[in-house]
Each structure stands twice: as C-alpha cells, then as structure tokens.
Amino acid sequence: MEPDERLSRALCIISKTFKTFDDLEELDDIFSDLRSLQIAMHSLNQTNRMTLLRNFSVKKLDAGKRLFKKGDPSACIYVILKGALQMYNHESPDCSDMTLVNFQTKGALIGERGILKNFPRSLTAIAAEETYVLVLEAKLFKLFLGKEVHAEIETKKKIIDQFIIGISQYPPSQKERLAYLIDFDMHRRGDIMIKQGSVTDCMMIITEGSCKLFQQLGPYKKTVSQLEKGSIIGDETALFNRPSSFAAVAMSDVVKVAKIRNDDIKSLYPPSVVQSLRDSYNIRNTARHKITDFSHPCLKLKLDVQNPEEDFPLASLTAREKINRIKLRTPSLKSPTFSNESARSVFKYKLQELREIPTLKLSRLIVRDKPRSNTSRF
C-alpha cells in the first residue's frame, strides 16, 4: 500500500464511531512504520493495544499552522503521521524572537516529556508543511505508555552519560534534553550501515552487537577494525562535514544503534563536547594508522608516537606512559630464538596492552597465519 493510501485508510478508520477488531488490526499494521510509537507499545498485551488504538484521534495542520505554544498545558501527546514539525524556542510572549531548535518528521513522538514531568510545553511547534498528527490524551498516555517511554528515556540518558565524551560536566537537565534527541535503529547481519564515500545524516553509537569497518582499495577490501558496544560510526560526516572514509557492515545477527542527527549535534550540543568528539575521532583514526602493520615476510608492530600529548590529547597521563612503554623491534625470521609463532604471541600481548587504554578504543585483532598481502591490518 502506498503512503497516501495508508494515510487515507488510517483517517477513514479513525473517523469511525465504532471500530471493529479488523479495523483496529489494520490500523495497527498501518502504524507499524511509526517507530517511536511501536517502541512504546511493544510490551502491551492485545487488549490494551486495541484499547489504545481505539482512542487515537487525528489533527490536520496546514503549513505554518501552530500545533502548540511554549507555556501551554501538556494535555496530550502527538505522533507525526505525515509531514514535519519545526520546534522553536522563544522568550517573548508574542514569539517575536523564535529560534529553530529541532525538526521532527514522520514517526516522531512529541510532547511526552511535559506529561511525564508535569511541565508545560517547553517549545512551540509549527507545521513545516501539510502535516497530520495522531493525538492521545495525557491520562491514556500515562496509563498505557508512560512506563515504557520513561524506561526508554532512562536508557537514552545512560547512552549520553556513557558514550558522549565531555558531557559529564553539564547538568542533568541538559543531558536529558540531549537524550530526547536520540532515535534507535536496528540492522541485520550483512546490512550495509554506512557506504564508503557516502555523506551520512547521523552519527551512530553501537548499543548491541558488532559491525566491521573496512576500506575499498581498488579491487581489494582492507579490514580496518571490528567495532562493538560503545563504538561510534558515521561521526566523520557529523563532526567534519566530509564523506565517510570507511564502510560499515553489520556482523551480528542483530546490531542495535542509537542515532544522533548531524543537525542536532551542530545546533544543540555544547561546542566543548563537539570538540571532544572530534578529538576522540582523531585519536581512533591515529591509532588505526599508526599502531599495527602486519606484513610478509615477518610481522611488524609499529608505534611511531613522538609526542603522545599531541597524538593522543584525551589520553590520561597513565595512558600516555603505557603508550611510551610499548616498544617492539621487528623480529627477524633468521633468528633461531624468534619464530613466527613466538612473534605472533608477543604482538598479541603488546596489542592487548594497547586495548586496555580506554581512550584508544581499539577493536579486536585480526591475525592471519599466512598474510595474503602487505596491507593486512587489524
């Protein structure tokens, strides 16, 4: 069914005074691509799910029309069914000093924070184009969805605290506002999460599973690293406005990511946090290119760091001391006491030391018994 047909059917069903079970099942299917709503409803039993679907209404807004104003009571939540909303902040009652804060599109859940915290509206919402929104009263939202939405927000706040470098110095209220900007997404094994050379629209934090990062060099693919929970991808575009140097492919059966839009990073994240994220990217990129070089006829470990303070600006003093201590001469195949196997063991040990430096965030090592080329890397 085409999007316009789905919208038309939804409007038709919602307008009915009496809705049959089949009507509600069809409505549930139509709403299946409204991700925020599906996440909030996923644990409901069938009875509660149908009760909730029966109580949605729809509101249509022409372009430029206001949905609600800052300071209005938080009387209901909205889910964008079609179109988009521009979210503005302002101090003057006449809205003469409005500043665009956010841009919400299809599937976004709007207004839940005010209901959960018993706050009035903190922003003004205006339709960017012809927009349809689902409407649910606050009491029904609290009864059926409040716990799920609250739990999701708490999860998002933990992601901000754990994985956004430099955010710890900011107050909980600011971190919570940033948490509301996160969306969740899921990929299956083999999915291309990022294409090399593409311009991504968001930065992704892996929250479950793993993905492989690689570069296409002519006809050859060079594995760069395997990234797991807490790793960030897509940040090259988000932080530096340039196409991705790497491709990312999902390696686990399920890879879950937290997505933060580039526009939100640029407009709403504190400059010091953005700079910390840039420094972190540079550290990881430096590590990928400087630390290892496995080649034929012997394995080599290169750690060419002349100025740890410059190459690893976010590393602690202890971490920098560890970096300076990691030294290994190139083993010679002619040495009777230094075989390929012993070399491999030493290299693994040294790389484990590097992995224990948290600011480097190195991935697991890939070692081949018979190196196929002089560009094999971890």
TrEMBL record:
PROSITE patterns: CNMP_BINDING_3. It comes from the Eukaryota. InterPro entries: cNMP-bd_dom, cNMP-bd_dom_sf, RmlC-like_jellyroll. Coiled coil: none annotated. Residues 40-147, 166-254 form the Cyclic nucleotide-binding domain. SUPFAM superfamilies: cAMP-binding domain-like (SSF51206). Pfam families: cNMP_binding. This is Cyclic nucleotide-binding domain-containing protein. It comes from Blepharisma stoltei. The lineage of its organism: Eukaryota, Sar, Alveolata, Ciliophora, Postciliodesmatophora.
